[in-house]
Structure formats: C-alpha cells, structure tokens
C-alpha cells in the first residue's frame, strides 16, 4: 500500500432484498453492484455490507441474499441490523447463511471492525421499530475495544446507524442509548472513520472528533412514512474507499450510470462538498432541458399572508428580468417568453428563478438549460416501479 497504490475496498448497504420495496429491483441492484465492483481495477480488497441486506429478516430472504452474494468475485463481510434479524426467533439463520454477527477484517494497513449496533433493547425505552434500537452492550463495547486495541495498523469501524447528536440527545435509533460512550471509545482509538448506512442517503459529518461517512441505499428507495407508498425512489449505488496511510478517500458510485454487463461507458460527476457542507444525495439526476426554439417559462410561487411582489429569472449572473403575473390564486403563476435571439450561443447555463416577497424575503429555484448543443448524450432515468411496502424502512 502506498500513495500511488492505495488499499481499495467497497461498501454496500440497505439492499433490502425481500418483499417490502421492489423485490426485482433490489435483487438486480445487488447483482449489478457486485458485478461492477468485481470489474473495477485494481480489484477492491473486500466489500463491507452494513446491514439491512434484507427486509423481513426471514430465512428465505437471507437465503436469497446469500445466493446472490455468492456470485461476488470480491469477498463480502456483513453485519446485521433489525431488518436482517426480526423475521426469525434467533440469529441462527443469519449466522448460518451470511456469517458472524460481528467480525474484524485485517486488510493491508487497515483493520476493519464490523459491529452489529442494532438489536432489541428490551431493557431500554421502546422508541422505534418495536423495540429495536442502536446500542452497544457492555459485552460488545469490550469486544470492540479489544479489536481496536490489538489492531496492527490503522482502524475503521463499520456499523449500521450513524451517531448524530440532535438537541440534547441523538438522532433516531441512537436516542436514549449509549451513543456518547460509543463515540468516546471510537475517538480514543483514533479510528480513520465510522462508516454507516440506514439513512438511505449519502452524507459525512465529524461528530465528537469521529469522522462518520454515511452511504446511500443500494435498494434505490428511501422511506418517508407518507402513504400510500411510504417511500420514494432514489438513485441506487455503492461506495468506494481508497486508503493510503495518509488519508481515507471515498466516492459514491451512482447506480444511474450502470450498464449490464458493466462496461463503464459514461462519465459520472458528483458535486459533493461546498466548504464544510456535504451536498447529500442521492439527488435526482440533473438532466438539462435542451432549448432549440422560443418557449414559455412558467414559474409558480407560494406564500402565506405576505404576497409575492416579484418573480424574476436569470441565465446570466446579475441580470434579472421580471416575469409576468399570469395567475393569482392560492399560489401565483408567472410567465416569461424565452427568446432564442437572446439565448443563442449561451450553451450550458443555470437558469435561475427568484421570488421576492413584499417583506423582502427571497426564494430561489434553479435548473440546467442547454441551448442548441450538438451531440449531447443524456442518461435516461431508470423506470422505477413500485410493488408495495408499508413497514418503516430505513
Ligand atoms: Fe436501517
Ligand atoms: Fe434500510
């Protein structure tokens, strides 16, 4: 391992094989990710699977996951969470079909500790998912401490749920738990990062001195709790890591760029950081609207009590032009005639819309515009179909 030849490994998470989201899509996404990871050069040393591999936690679902995972040319090390365990009386099916509940993996220059942070908390307040929550029992704390203490090199921890402070507690499954002690343990061992899933979104934070890298769902869905579907489609993907003793670098490989079989025909770009702020995602894919002729732009604005005084648009920095009010009801609608004589030669532009309220408050929206660009190649958004799913899933 060196700066020019770093350790490469991958992470998949929240695959949700099973009947809750979209069974066919979950399985095909896993197949795609494993095939593509297997074709990356240099080949990743391993894949870390950070739980919610299945949805109902039944033996049949775990069997399906194991059958699909068996095709991976790269070794997979997995940890379970509630969705992987709550369908059976005990953890026997997981241990027989997937592996141990927690383990350490020594990669060149890096020990990865995978710990099952989600379990039934019968002795704790029930706050979500019928008593399941994130916590590390004294026994698990001692085991993690031992694994980190005896690591021959740098250390990384993988678990399911990120540990994020909110108000005077911690977010979601770590609320009313021993999150502070766990963070303290990780900080004392100076781990390179804590990598997690569960949120079905990408993000990165520094919490109490611990770098937490969260990875979006391979299933391509995010639970939002809103009927009738209780979730909405997101772009699936997996994460790559490169570690070179100096730095742990990471990249979200977006599933909307996939091909089957994997051939990497298209480039991917992701705007990930703006200063210290991670831009999140997976986001809707940016597909510029191509403009070849005069057309009408319609913007809609909404404000309660204080009226919208003006809506303006701009494709050139600092040059705002007023839109015309076309409808005033519960919301207002504003129109602009886009004139090709003014747009011609602009190429790719960000089209801005700005609404100014009578009290000076401002709202913005923006979209990509491509004016008369030859030979542009656009990705088609995958057609997601929904087959059900009403259980809380994260
Ligand atoms: Fe989860
Ligand atoms: Fe999940």
Features:
394 residues, alpha+beta, Purple Acid Phosphatase, chain A, domain 2, six-stranded mixed beta sheet, 27 strands, disordered C terminus, binds fe (ii) ion
Question: Mind explaining what this structure looks like?
Answer:
Strand 16 and strand 17 (248-254) form a beta hairpin. This protein folds into two domains: 7-278, Metallo-dependent phosphatases (Purple Acid Phosphatase, chain A, domain 2, 4-Layer Sandwich), CATH 3.60.21; 289-371, Immunoglobulin-like, CATH 2.60.40. It is built from seven helices and 27 strands. The chain has 394 residues and is an alpha+beta fold. The longest helix has 17 residues, at 23-39. One fe (ii) ion binds at residues 52, 81, 160, 198, 394.
Q: What order do the strands of the largest sheet run in, or round the barrel if closed? A: 4-5-8-11-13-12
CATH third-level topology of the largest domain:
Purple Acid Phosphatase, chain A, domain 2
Spell out which ligands are present.
fe (ii) ion
Shape assignment: elongated
Structural class, from secondary structure content? alpha+beta
Name of the CATH class of the largest domain: Alpha Beta
* Intertermini distance: 35 Å
Helical percentage = 10-25%
Annotated CATH homologous superfamily of the largest domain? Metallo-dependent phosphatases
Can you count the beta strands?
A: 27
Mean pLDDT: 88
Question: For the report, how would you describe the main beta sheet?
Answer: 6 strands, mixed
Output the radius of gyration.
Answer: 24 Å
Count of helix runs: 7
CATH architecture of the largest domain: 4-Layer Sandwich
Low-confidence stretches: 376-393
Strand residue content: 25-35%
């Amino acid at each position: 391992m060196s700066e020019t030849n770093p350790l490469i490994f991958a992470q998949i998470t929240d695959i949700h094989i099973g009947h809750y989201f979209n069974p066919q899509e979950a399985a095909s996404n896993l197949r795609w990710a494993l095939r593509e990871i297997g074709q990356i050069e240099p080949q990743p040393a391993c894949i870390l699977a950070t739980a919610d591999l299945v949805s109902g936690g039944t033996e049949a679902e775990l069997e399906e996951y194991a059958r699909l995972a068996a095709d991976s040319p790269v070794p997979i090390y997995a940890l379970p969470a509630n969705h992987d365990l709550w369908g059976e009386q005990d953890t026997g099916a997981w241990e027989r079909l997937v592996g141990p509940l927690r383990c350490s993996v020594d990669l060149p220059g890096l020990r990865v500790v995978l710990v099952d942070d989600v379990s039934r908390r019968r002795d704790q307040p029930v706050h979500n998912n019928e008593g399941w929550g994130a916590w590390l029992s004294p026994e698990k704390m001692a085991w993690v401490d031992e694994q980190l203490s005896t690591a021959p090199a740098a250390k990384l921890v993988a678990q399911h749920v990120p540990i994020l402070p909110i108000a005077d507690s911690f977010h979601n499954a770590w609320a009313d738990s021993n999150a502070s002690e766990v963070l303290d343990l990780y900080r004392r061992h100076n781990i390179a990062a804590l990598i997690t899933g569960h949120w079905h979104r990408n993000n990165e934070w520094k919490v109490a001195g611990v770098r937490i890298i969260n990875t979006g769902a391979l299933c391509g869905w995010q639970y939002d709790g809103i009927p009738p579907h209780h979730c909405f489609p997101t772009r699936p993907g997996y994460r790559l890591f490169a570690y070179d003793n100096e730095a742990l670098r990471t990249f979200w490989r977006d599933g909307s760029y996939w091909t089957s079989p994997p051939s990497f025909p298209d480039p991917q770009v992701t705007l990930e950081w703006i200063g210290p702020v991670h831009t999140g995602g997976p986001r809707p894919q940016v597909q510029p609207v191509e403009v070849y002729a005069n057309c009408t732009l319609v913007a809609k604005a909404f404000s309660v009590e204080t009226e919208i005084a003006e809506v303006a648009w701009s494709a050139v920095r600092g040059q705002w032009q007023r839109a015309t009010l076309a409808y005033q009801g519960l919301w207002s609608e504003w129109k602009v005639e886009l004139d090709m004589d003014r747009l011609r030669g602009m190429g790719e532009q960000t089209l801005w819309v700005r609404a100014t309220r009578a009290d000076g408050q401002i709202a913005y929206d923006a979209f990509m515009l491509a004016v008369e660009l030859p030979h542009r190649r656009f990705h088609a958004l995958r057609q997601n179909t929904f087959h059900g799913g009403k259980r809380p899933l994260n």
